[in-house]
Specification:
The protein has 70 residues and is an alpha+beta fold. It contains two helices and two strands.
Length: 70
Amino acid sequence: FDQAWYPGEEVSTFALVEAKGKTTLTQTVAYESREARDIVMKSPMEEGVRAGYDKLAAKINQQLAQLGIV
């Protein structure tokens, strides 16, 4: 999104950790206030984020299959 639809700022961090040949992505989002966090948590954002990551995983798996890695 170009503009926040909740009050205040937010900071997102991403961590990629590989273990036993599998990489896990962890995303953490810190909001400026509890109010902002609560507004976001009441939205359907989680479903949209999950759908986006599912599409990303499918694309990565497709590419790996084409390379003969999977």
